[in-house]
Amino acid sequence: MASENRDWGYDRIAGALGNLGHEISDQTVGNVLRRHGLPPAPERKRTTTWAAFVRTHLALLAGTDFFTAEVLTLRGLVTYYVLFFIHLESRQVNIAGITVHPNEAWMKQIARTATMEDCGALRDCRYLLHDRDTKFTRSFRAILVSGRVKPLALPARSPNLNAYAER
Q1: Share of the chain above pLDDT 70, in %
Q2: pLDDT at position 51, please?
Q3: Which of 20, 147, 153, 166 places its Cα 20 to 30 Å from the Cα of 160?
């Protein structure tokens, strides 16, 4: 049984808890995980679907995207780009900014504002889902990472993976 538990990674969990000053056997770790309905680590890796990941991390996930609004001005019809963030658990939408030209400098400022500790739109989020739009530049993603938000670029032509924001 002990070798079976080692294959499942329970000894790693027990060792990590030991480093924190908690002596616990790998058998106990296995019993606790089974009691809570968690399969062994190799099985969790193979069976986790995108839907399961989203359900598990719903409180930590946000989505972002652009939509456009056509506005009739004195100079004619102007297209405005609206960037928004949506917290997936609460479905709260925050309008991050509106501009005619969403360039890199504007996107960097949005990232800094969104990751502010006390009042940023992403303050309670660890992951940000976004499509592969070129407006989500490398520097935009770097600022998000420095604000402890991991940007997750979705595969091309997969609107269902960011369905909350796409709607």
Answers
A1: 80
A2: 76
A3: 147
